[in-house]
Amino acid sequence: MKLTAIQSCASVIALAIAGLSTPVFAQAAAPAAADAATADKAEGDTLSEIVVTASTGTKSKLDSSVSISSVDSAIIANFRPMSEGDLLRLLPGLQPNVSGPGGNGNFAVRGLPVATGGATFVQLQEDGLPTVLFGDIQFGNNDYWTKSSPMDARVDAIRGGTAATLASQAPGAVINYISKTDRSEGGYIQVERNLTYDYTRASFRFSGAIDDKTHFNIGGYYGAGDGPWHSGYNLSKSYLIKGNITREFDENRGFFRLYFKAQDTQEPNTQGGIACGSLSGGKVSNLQACPGFDPRRASNFSGFNPVVNYVDFDSRGLASTPLNGITTNAQSLQAQLHYKFDNGITVDNNARYTNMSGGFSSNFLSVSPLSGLIGSTKNGGTVARAVYSAGPDRGKDVKEAFYNNNVSVYTRIRDVGSFVNDAKLNWQGDLGAVKANLTAGWFYMNQKIAMDWHPNQFNGSLTPAASPIDLLDAAGNLLSANGFTGYNNNWGGCCARTYDYTFTDNAPYADFIFDVGKFELDASVRHDINKGTGSGINANPLTGDAVTHFISTNAVNPVTGASQAVSLPYYLPDGARETINYTKQTTSWSVGASFKPMDNLNLFVRASKGVRANADRLTFSGYFNANGTLNAKGNTAVSNNVYQYEIGLKNRGSIGGARYTVELTGYHSHFNITTFELSQTICPIVTGSPTTFTCIISDKYKTTGAEFYGTLSAGGFSLLANMTYNKSKKQPSAPGSVFKRSNNIPDLSYTFAANYDFNAMVSLGANITGVTSTLDGAGNEWPGGSVVGANVKFRPIDNLEIGLNAYNLFDKLTPLGPAGTDYNAGGGKFIGGISPVLGRNVNASVRFSF
């Protein structure tokens, strides 16, 4: 184990010993702060909860001058999200795309876009600490590592405001998965089975007391099956266990808590899909599944295509890995201390050590006409035939008019482990007629990013059970091996790369709240000291190099069945080593004011400047001097400032016999962004070159909009509603460019979820989520769409619940993410690359509570 890992473990263990050895005084224990907040709240009232996300933890949502909303575990279960991106649709301001159970989602917020991939301005947290420091790590997005589980009590989302100053790298939003930590007895065991595709999951949660001062919660799941795209092999195979143990201090002094997590997940990602439609006057219409390939049910995951082949960097020999989507392996230990002194001072410390690694093994999807492949030159020969390499038609000529020529990529995620600590000191007291609430803190995080990239050239069929396509010359000689025409070389010399980086963020911060009757002023500031060290190598960091490596392998000719030697090109990371060794300091601030004309109404305004730092996306892009320091271009690109201005209200009350909550915020923001992109769709548009698949994006953005979040409950009826209206504009860096509508950001996104308990035995629910039209990178307008779900629960006896939950009830082909034109056939007909939601599927469950 490396010294930094030993030090991190020692820090958490020391904090644990200190917490457990703190004197326990004499009276009945009080619940933990986050749990006490919900003890007396009315059903459906989310505004009474104490804000614990990107905040000082001393104000309720109603009384704070920030935009924050929550959804609890019951709402999430009824909605049944198919991914973390789906879950975020329950919260206002967020604009996620389709991502699949494994992750790799793009999460925009308030029109702050995803210029490349991941969650550029959004941080995912678990119990108040980030799982990874940066939301857009290449092949390491934050939704790889954070998964909803039976241990989640609720999910908070704070947008703008103090997300810029009381969290790092999250000027857009902080999403916090908050565990169940309260004192209770019992739990449940649940078994689910999907009735549409092969997937079974068992989950549990159990809570209890060790003594009158100590209690615990533990829960998790195990799930396995072919998965939602009918892969034909055990593509989904995951377990996750989370738990916590809490020791409460007497005299309402606070608590000490240990959290632990172990997860080993293997789940598919959305590889992209295709749809056929019409394109006229820049508008897309009549989208439908293309003949032979329905992206609601089909993908590149197939029993005929179960592996990714590549050339290993160390042995320089041919290797393979299962085509199993996104895999994660993580173990974490977290210690949290909350202690109140007699003089109004409270000390909080939250620390976590995480050991984390994984992999990305997937074939992306885009189409080209087969006619363009026949007659082309591949590996020194002319392609005369394209044949299926596996499956029932093995050795036969490909009969589809189109084929998939996108990358087959394996990224070995060697290390994305971290140590994070957030310490803060709070004082509350009176300064004459002013009530003061003052906080000072220090955030520290050490984030490892170490990976090997293997992007391989590959051809595959567009059939529900996708097969590799092998190429032959006129003499019947193979020009490929099991669909692969080259290794580590799909994106040219840039991307056969290996690297090992460490990024640290030291951030002192302060927050000042002054309360005078109905008025409150809140100001906060944060100073981030970001440091990057390490090095990486690729084939050639700037221009690519001529292919100098070839590997000879024996492959079975699918036509003859005979073994045949094939020589294929490959890249190795043998270019010049790039070293990084830089420090960048930035300052963020946020100022807000609120006015409460009555107890249940709060009006607020806020202005903020937040900073997002580039990390691994800064490398191999010409931003560093030879000694690893930033050059002039790098000093500009290393961080991006985001300015936001908000005005809003929060209100709760009753109409007749119904109780309601309302949160409404108007906002405006502007910012610049510079980042590195890998995309066969985006980069040709940015560069003007149809063969350029890597590029640097440097654009200006501005956005104006409003977000609404509300709840309503009356008797057995409950309703959640959120809507985000947004006008986002982008100005590319090219000379003479002007602001135009941003691509991939809808003007309106919405979610409504309703539930009705008829009696103690039966409940029924329905939900709808959707978006209005979006633009692709070429400026074409794509239609919006919606997805409808439904659920029913039946409780025939006490402690037993039987459920049915339907997703995409009307089986609509709905793109909810980036789209583009893969092939324009002329005459207004085209094939588009889309990110579609899954087709209709029904999940059955049985839960036994105890």
List the topology elements.
Layout: H1 3-20, H2 33-36, E1 67-72, H3 73-79, H4 84-88, E2 94-96, E3 107-109, E4 122-126, E5 129-130, H5 142-145, E6 152-159, E7 173-179, E8 186-194, E9 200-211, E10 214-225, E11 236-249, E12 254-267, E13 273-280, E14 283-288, E15 307-311, E16 318-322, E17 325-340, E18 345-363, E19 367-369, H6 370-373, E20 377-378, E21 381-382, E22 385-388, E23 402-404, E24 408-415, E25 418-431, E26 434-458, E27 460-461, E28 469-472, E29 484-486, E30 498-516, E31 519-537, E32 549-556, E33 563-570, E34 578-598, E35 601-613, H7 632-637, E36 639-655, E37 658-678, H8 683-687, E38 694-714, E39 717-732, E40 740-741, E41 748-757, E42 762-771, E43 774-775, E44 781-782, E45 785-797, E46 800-807, E47 820-826, E48 829-834, E49 841-849
Parallel strand pairs: 4-7
Antiparallel strand pairs: 1-6, 2-3, 4-5, 6-7, 8-9, 8-49, 9-10, 10-11, 11-12, 12-17, 13-14, 13-48, 15-16, 17-18, 18-24, 18-25, 19-23, 20-21, 22-28, 23-27, 24-26, 25-26, 26-29, 26-30, 30-31, 31-34, 32-33, 34-35, 35-36, 36-37, 37-38, 38-39, 39-40, 39-41, 41-42, 42-45, 43-44, 45-46, 46-49, 47-48
